[in-house]
């Protein structure tokens, strides 16, 4: 909500913490909201958190967007797409709640159409949509709870599926959160078959990528994975779990990689789509391993 001089909660907090990044500040503000809601176990009651932020109603509707925050006559309402899954709706609701902490939410209706960007837009201005996604990750998968749940489970998609179900979060949101909170260099990629301007042959290409702060890389969209790489075997139904070189994604060194096929039905195209999800954590070389 707005505070002194009409400033948003984020702007006030950034004045108080001038050296902190907007990403860290919005995450801390979202964590404060989780604490205010006295959340002690998953899944998080996002409608309760919405009410704390003076959102008077959360309703489902059928539309082309995932959700929107509406300010009408001083009353805040959120609309969610009734055709989307509960995990997707939860993240969208978290996104819209976080708009109440960000600049400009009272000036216009905010629509959420394209979720899951891994990096903010390159601009001198605040990327409020990106920051709303960062805050939503904290609301749906609070770090003070989910860090322990990640740590108690072995690395791989079995663990990520379990945490996803526990928090009523999507697999991709859970994987991004795992990477974000990882103490080791880690990455997550969503891959699908597609062509490029220079290669008309469909190849397994990056559609989305996230990486931890400890991994100083950039994984470009549409980057292809060679057909000889272990990750590619997931397209044939294999559950891949092994150490592999990830130079093909510009990640230096050896990584323990877990990759699985997660096909889905594309409502807009009316067809099944083969999707491969892969996570990797840096694996030390033999010389780096402790005896």
Structure overview:
The protein is of the alpha+beta class and 291 residues long. Helices cover 30% and strands 24% of the residues. The chain has 8 helices and 11 strands. The strands form 3 sheets. A 5-stranded antiparallel beta sheet has the order 6-5-11-8-7, covered by helices on one side. A hairpin with an 8-residue loop joins strand 5 and strand 6. The protein is globular and about 60 Å long. Residues 112-124 and 285-291 have low confidence and may be disordered.
Secondary structure elements and pairings:
Layout: H1 9-16, H2 22-36, H3 46-52, E1 55-61, E2 67-72, E3 75-81, H4 86-99, E4 110-112, H5 128-140, H6 143-151, H7 157-167, H8 171-181, E5 186-194, E6 203-211, E7 240-245, E8 254-261, E9 264-266, E10 271-273, E11 275-282
Parallel strand pairs: 1-3
Antiparallel strand pairs: 2-3, 2-4, 5-6, 5-11, 7-8, 8-11, 9-10
Helix pairs in contact: 1-2, 2-5, 3-4, 4-5, 7-8
Protein name: ImmA/IrrE family metallo-endopeptidase
Pfam families: Peptidase_M78
Organism: Mumia xiangluensis
Write out key terms for the chains shown:
2 domains; 291 residues; alpha+beta; 30% helix; 5-stranded antiparallel sheet; globular; Beta-Lactamase; single chain; Arc Repressor Mutant, subunit A; IrrE_HExxH; disordered C terminus
């Amino acid at each position: 909500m707005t505070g002194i001089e009409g400033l948003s909660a984020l702007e006030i907090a950034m004045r108080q913490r001038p050296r902190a990044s907007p990403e860290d500040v919005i995450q801390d503000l979202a964590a404060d909201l989780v604490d205010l809601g006295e959340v002690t176990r998953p899944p998080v009651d996002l409608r309760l958190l919405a009410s704390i932020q003076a959102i008077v109603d959360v309703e489902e509707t059928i539309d082309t967007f995932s959700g929107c925050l509406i300010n009408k006559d001083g009353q805040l309402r959120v609309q969610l797409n009734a055709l989307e899954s509960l995990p997707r709706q939860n993240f969208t609701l978290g996104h819209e709640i976080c708009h109440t902490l960000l600049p400009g939410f009272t000036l216009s209706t905010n629509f959420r159409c394209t979720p899951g960007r891994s990096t903010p837009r390159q601009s001198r201005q605040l990327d409020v949509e990106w920051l709303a996604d960062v805050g939503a990750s904290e609301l749906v998968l609070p770090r003070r709870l989910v860090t322990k749940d990640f740590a108690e489970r072995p690395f791989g998609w079995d663990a990520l599926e379990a945490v996803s179900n526990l928090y009523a979060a999507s697999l991709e949101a859970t994987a991004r959160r795992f990477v974000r909170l990882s103490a080791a260099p880690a990455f997550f990629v969503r891959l699908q078959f597609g062509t490029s301007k220079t290669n008309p042959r469909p190849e397994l290409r990056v559609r989305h990528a996230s990486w931890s702060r400890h991994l100083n890389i950039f994984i470009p969209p549409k980057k292809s994975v060679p057909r000889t790489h272990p990750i590619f075997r997931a397209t044939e139904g294999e559950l891949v779990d092994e150490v592999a070189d990830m130079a093909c994604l510009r990640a230096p060194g050896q990584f323990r990689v877990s990759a699985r096929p997660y096909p889905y039905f594309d409502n807009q195209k009316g067809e099944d789509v083969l999707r491969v999800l892969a996570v990797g954590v840096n694996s030390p070389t033999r010389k780096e391993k402790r005896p």
